[in-house]
């Protein structure tokens, strides 16, 4: 008996095999843009690498990539028999659509962005990694669907929210979706915290959000002008010396411990 | 030379399909999208090299070029890669070679000059068909 059929997208198998050497995938998410996901992702990736972990940083924000800019790298990935080897900066392997697009506009539909992400995942030769940090686009579209249903790796989520009502309200949707997609959440992180009236009374939004979903509230990262300066200079070394980075390090110590023991 | 990893991915996928359906692959067809600018002779050679000594050795392999067709989401007009390729720099061609969707980062619609496209056919390499004896 003969049977003729089309086969599933072969890149799914490639992704599964490539990610089988990656121990943890951490999705850094938020409900809206501008809450500092990219800076949190870059700082965390650099801190993990400085602590001796093998780390990759996937810039999954296909519409607005910034990871390569943050690290000040524009090196095209090296093409070889095993696929594309990402450039390394401060011990972090970085893959971003911007390494190819070099600052050009990215007028992509949702389907187009999805194709770009799948191609990057299929082609990138990460090698063995303890952790792949994915800097996600805001909200809950195609990219989140791809990365929450990866073959070969079980991702976890880290939700970043500013303290305000808007940011917290849209982060609520992300947490709901993580729950329905059965993606474990390592916690909620408050970013750009500025002590002041309205924030001193009672429990703040991101902490309340964490409590509502039964996930850890990891802490509040300050609004830190040192971060702005370091980002302007594309100086990850300076970024790591900020108060922001120190608070992030403390906030993610439990996760780092998991990486050591798993 | 990332073609090698893609062709390996194709071969693994075809073998996986055969395993899942408990069949033997008698033929399979690969379409090589024009937009990716892959060298079709290289794809054929890599397929021959990789399948040698595997369960796919002896299966009929058809490798065809798939013409690229792009549609503008602004005005709906369609065009093909050859209409755009001449205007691309080598750097832009390389960018599209790796990530075909980035054609919209370096081209405009020839009719209305807008930037949002849909690639309807011929983006990259894909498995079009597998025939099994089951």
Describe this structure in words.
The complex is a heterodimer of chains A (262) and B (134). Chain A is an alpha/beta fold and 262 residues long. Chain A has a single domain, classed as 3-Layer(aba) Sandwich (Rossmann fold). Chain A contains twelve helices and eleven strands. In chain A, the strands form two sheets. An eight-stranded mixed sheet of chain A has the order 6-7-3-8-2-9-10-11, sandwiched between helices. A two-stranded antiparallel sheet of chain A has the order 4-5. In chain A, a hairpin with a 2-residue loop joins strand 6 and strand 7 (92-96). In chain A, helix 1 packs across helix 5 (110-123) and helix 7 runs parallel beside helix 8. Chain A is globular and about 55 Å long. Chain A starts with a strand and ends with a helix. Chain B has 134 residues and is of the alpha+beta class. Chain B has a three-stranded mixed sheet, with helices on one face. Chain B has a three-stranded antiparallel sheet with strand order 4-3-5. In chain B, helix 2 links the parallel strand 1 (24-33) and strand 2 (60-66). In chain B, helix 1 (3-20) crosses helix 2. In chain B, 40% of the residues are buried. At the A-B interface, strand 1, helix 1 and helix 5 of A face helix 1, helix 4, helix 5, strand 5 and strand 6 of B. Strand 1 of chain A pairs antiparallel with strand 6 of chain B.
Helix content of chain A: 40-55%
Which fold name corresponds to the CATH topology of chain A? Rossmann fold
CATH topology type of the largest domain in chain B: hypothetical protein PF0899 fold
Which regions of chain B contain 5 or more consecutive residues with pLDDT less than 50? none
Number of helices of chain B: 5
**Helix and strand composition category of chain B:** alpha+beta
Oligomer: heterodimer
Strand content of chain A: 15-25%
Could you tell me the mean pLDDT of chain B? 94
